[in-house]
Amino acid sequence: MFRAELLERAARFRSAEDDPTRNLQSCPSLVLNADYTPLSYYPLSLWPWQTAIKAIFLDRVDVIATYDREVHSPNLDMKIPSVIALKQYVKPSEFPAFTRFNLFLRDRFSCQFCGDQHNLTFDHVTPRRLGGKTTWENIATACAPCNMKKGGRTPKQAGMQLYAEPIRPTHWQLQQHGKMFPPNYLHETWRDWLYWDIELEE
Ligand SMILES: [Zn+2]
């Protein structure tokens, strides 16, 4: 139940993104790093097929799998790539950018006081009027009602408990959280590359 709600939340979040690559009809290519792990799980690293084909001709990627659909031009017939891998490994930065999206992802899109996944806002754990800064370590995801209830107080003053102390997450930690939100539009050729390290459920 909880998981279903999380997925629903993720789906709604996604639909807010007006991005043509988030649509299987447009044949996006899943982009893997040179070690064959996705460049990003959430949002999933996808390129428009035109970009993927360009990268093939620049010899920057290998084609791992293809769609059945082909593109034709006077001097080229080729299947549209569905999975490509970079030839050169891209080292992810250790610490991700401090953005709204990454902050929500760190907190798994849920209020850190009550777990609700609706009407999410950002709460200064130590309020600004008490010198609280706008940093990874002092901002927590909070639903609007909890944010209102807490007001300009510390959690202790308000008698409210955080699920976890806010931390500056590593890139790896965010990727782990991103894996909790599988897209609902997976192409069959993507699956092996997305969940290879997750135990299969019976
Ligand atoms: Zn709440």
UniProtKB/TrEMBL annotation:
<dbReference type="InterPro" id="IPR029471">
    <property type="entry name" value="HNH_5"/>
</dbReference>
<keyword id="KW-0378">Hydrolase</keyword>
<keyword id="KW-0540">Nuclease</keyword>
<dbReference type="InterPro" id="IPR052892">
    <property type="entry name" value="NA-targeting_endonuclease"/>
</dbReference>
<feature type="domain" description="HNH nuclease">
    <location>
        <begin position="98"/>
        <end position="148"/>
    </location>
</feature>
<protein>
    <submittedName>
        <fullName>HNH endonuclease</fullName>
    </submittedName>
</protein>
<dbReference type="GO" id="GO:0004519">
    <property type="term" value="F:endonuclease activity"/>
</dbReference>
<keyword id="KW-0255">Endonuclease</keyword>
<dbReference type="Pfam" id="PF14279">
    <property type="entry name" value="HNH_5"/>
</dbReference>
<dbReference type="InterPro" id="IPR003615">
    <property type="entry name" value="HNH_nuc"/>
</dbReference>
